[in-house]
User: What shape does this take?
Amino acid sequence: QAVVTQEPSLTVSPGGTVTLTCGSNTGAVTSGHYPYWFQQKPGQAPRTLIYDTSNKHSWTPARFSGSLLGGKAALTLSGAQPEDEAEYYCLLSYSGPRVFGGGTKLTVL
Amino acid sequence: EVQLVESGGGLVQPGRSLRLSCTTSGFTFGDYAMTWFRQAPGKGLEWVGFIRSKPYGGTAEYAASVKGRFTISRDDSKSIAYLQMNSLRAEDTAVYYCIRGGEFDVYDIWGQGTMVTVSS
Assistant: This one.
């Protein structure tokens, strides 16, 4: 089974910018992996932020954006807010199985 | 408003079975694939599997960790998706979430989850 890797933890200052990445041990992540990004706050169900690399849902704050960067999927947060402190998970599709990354704990401090 | 509500979780002994339900409202259930994810206590998310909508065959796909033990089904007349879990193991202990979407449908709305504990 494929292994999807994320930074275990990152810290960003309020108002700052941070990029979370999502890599695959099978090679470069492409749009064909249909990358997703999910946000989960403590005690809550996750919610979907980004789908198919860079598309946002109606509830996704404009400060979040998705892209492909250096062979990985990337989630960029520009202008971090205290309420963005959460765990972030990426999900990649592999022609059948879907595989999550281990998650990135983002601290806004 | 689109809503998904999981139910059926609880404490079950190893080797026994449990069926989870995902009761939905606010959309045309039969038009969408439905997916199950799970999250063990203090751990990350894991894809369990999904079921296609009837226009795409209504068939299901599963993670290797549950294949042969879990079955996903759907009742479009009731707008409910099911997760039948057999031969349960301690490592199946998790919060189980249903989510609208899968394969050709975008994942969007999540349920609140239902806890399954496998223990003697």
